Amino acid sequence: MDLKNYKSGTFSGQFGYRSFHPNALNAEWLVSQPELVTLLEEANIRLGALNAFSVIIPDVNTFLRMHMVKEATQSSRIEGTQTTMDEAVLEAKDIDPEKKDDWQEVQNYIEAMNHSIARLEKLPISTRLIRETHKILLKGVRGKNKMPGQFRTSQNWIGGATLKDARFVPPHYSLVPELMADLEKFLNNSNIHVPHLIRIGMAHYQFEAIHPFLDGNGRIGRLLITLYLVNQNILKEPTLYLSDFIEKNRSHYYHNLTAVSEKHDMVQWLKFFLVGITETANRAIDTFNKLLALRNTLENKTIMPLSRRIPNARALLTYLYKKPVVTVADVMHELNVTKQTANTLIEDFEKLKILHEQTGFKRNRIFVFDEYMNLFKK
After folding, report:
1. Which of 24, 25, 111, 374 is the most buried if burial means most Cβ atoms within 10 Å?
2. In the 8-state DSSP scheme, what is residue 23?
3. Whole-number Å distance between alpha carbons of 378 and 373
């Protein structure tokens, strides 16, 4: 079926409100619109360029944690948390108690991402994997009483104070298992020919329309995009996350999703989605290039005056790429050195302007690798 003839579903009356019933998605969809074809080609080219970094950088995993931290922070921010990237990389003991709940939501998201990506080695993208990931996401945080890891068994809604004034009401809960089973088949159906980015773009819309959980749908729906790209070997490593693009274009994001349900305009949503893929890939490529340039400068120029301490300095830099906000205790534990050696090394890094102390205290000091952190904040 041609995408220009796409029908998203129907609205049906319930007891005092109107809910949306998405049509089944598992079918072969044809892309005939020239503009959409062009955007698809451009997005694929940029993903290929981004994926090259996973091949040419032997220790690319060193940098992936910060990509995940950025995604977790931005995706959670869309849902109302206020945790910053600087806070997200701190240990629990270093977090202000008033900020602990938001911080834990971000940590759960990071754990959920790592779990789901690791599970792809044994599981396809499936309702089972989605539920496992959701359970981790809501563990011990807001939403912990909203059926973590289970599809909803009651009606939810988006916007408004009640069902009667809601902006959008997803399908009745009795339809969720059937709709999610269809979505799983669509994501894994090798007998239909649908371009991968078109397939996951449509699947993201469908997931959000179904809204299968009582809480956490947005975060799981965004994570689903990265999982699909990795699962299909479009990306060797999870280097692309759309939450930053979505957060910056939030009104357009919701407008385009709504237009699919109300006007069956899947083409416009896919245009927005593909532009998001291209722009996000370009930013990730730029970040990787700057990371490599920074690492080259630091390791081959900046730390060279440290002479005999260079081996420890290189080890500390490697640690800072994964955790750019540290304490003396962190350095002692990671490098297996004495407190005196850790203090001396940190003092060296302060003099070289690699680290700066952010608390102003004489005890419980926290040191930040600002130049590195700023690459992810732009």
Report:
1. 25
2. P
3. 9
> What is the model's pTM?
0.93
Element (H, E) at 22: strand 18-22
Computed over every residue of the chain, the mean pLDDT equals: 94
Are 332 and 259 contained in the same domain? no
Neighbours of 102 (CB within 10 A): 22
DSSP at 2: B
pLDDT of 241-261, one tens digit each? Answer: 999 999 999 999 999 999 999
71 CB burial (10 A radius; 0-12, 13-18, 19+):
buried
Report the CATH number that the domain containing residue 356 is assigned in CATH: 1.10.10.10
Q: Is the pLDDT of residue 361 over 80?
A: no
Domain end call among 252, 287, 322: 287
**For the chain, how many structural domains are there in total?**
2
Residues in the chain, how many?
378
The CA distance from 155 to 141, in Å, is: 21
The 3-state DSSP class for residue 3 equals: helix
Question: Is the Cβ–Cβ distance between 317 and 284 less than 8 Å?
Answer: no
Q: Report the pLDDT value the prediction gives residue 57, as an integer from 0 to 100.
A: 82
Distance between CA atoms of residues 57 and 231, nearest Å: 20
Q: Taking the CB of residue 31, how many other CB atoms lie within 10 A of it?
A: 18
Go through 130-144 and write b for each residue having 16 or more CB atoms within 10 A of its CB, e for each that does not. bbbbbbbbbbebbbe
Distance (Å, whole) CA 9 – CA 28: 17
> Are 207 and 334 contained in the same domain?
no
Cα–Cα distance for residue pair 106/76, rounded to 1 Å: 6
138-193 residue pLDDT tens: 999 988 889 999 999 999 999 988 998 999 999 999 999 999 999 999 999 999 99
Q: Which amino acid is at 174?
A: S
Q: What is the pLDDT of residues 267-325, one digit of tens each?
A: 999 999 999 999 999 999 999 999 999 999 999 999 999 999 999 999 999 999 999 99
Asked whether the predicted pLDDT for residue 362 surpasses 80, the reply is no
In a shared domain, residues 228 and 310:
no
CB atoms < 10 A from the CB of 250, how many?
A: 11
Q: Is residue 118 part of a domain?
A: yes
List CB contacts of 190: < 8 A, sequence separation 6 or more: none
